[in-house]
Hints:
Elements: E1 8-11, H1 16-25, E2 32-35, H2 51-66, E3 69-79, H3 100-110, E4 118-128, E5 137-147, E6 163-165, E7 170-171, H4 177-183, H5 185-202
Parallel strand pairs: 1-2, 1-3
Antiparallel strand pairs: 3-4, 4-5, 5-6, 6-7
Amino acid sequence: MALSPDNTVVLASGNRGKLLELGNLLGGLGITLLSQADFNVIEADETGLSFIENAILKARNAARQSGHAALADDSGLCVDALGGAPGIYSARYAGEKAQDADNNLKLLDALQGESNRKAHFHCALAFVRHADDPAPIVAEGLWQGDILDAPRGTNGFGYDPLFYINDLNLCSAELSKEQKNQLSHRALALAQLLPRLRSEYLSI
Length: 204
């Protein structure tokens, strides 16, 4: 099934940081990536127990309400010493109304005195051609790092100020947009997704 004539794809998120990041990564495919907020989509209940489950739920919800193909990203930070937390609850780790700073502060409190700072960002992407698509395209990416004792940098969003990349001696919030678009969990997941989108649906 082909996409709409203008190649509109709805991102199942109202997060402008994600829209910008994924829009940049999809820039070469001729896709018009719009936020679900542009269609007044009511957000899906994230009742899944994994990143993939939640990504598919969100993609179907956005496709059903917008009438367009939809792309959903469900991602989060998994910290080894916390048994993988905050995981799928990363965006609301400090509560339903939590801001990035609240989540970061709770994470630092949870790791106070902990020597094991190993963590990874996990991204699951799900693309559905329509709401009842029986074969969503899914892809996952993992980005390894460590959690700092205090935030650094001014770029990015979410847990970026605390996520340290050893090989670069920088945290995610200190990376340029171009660097992050090459290294991030979303970039790694999208690298798997793009060939399928290109060959099967975009005819590019």
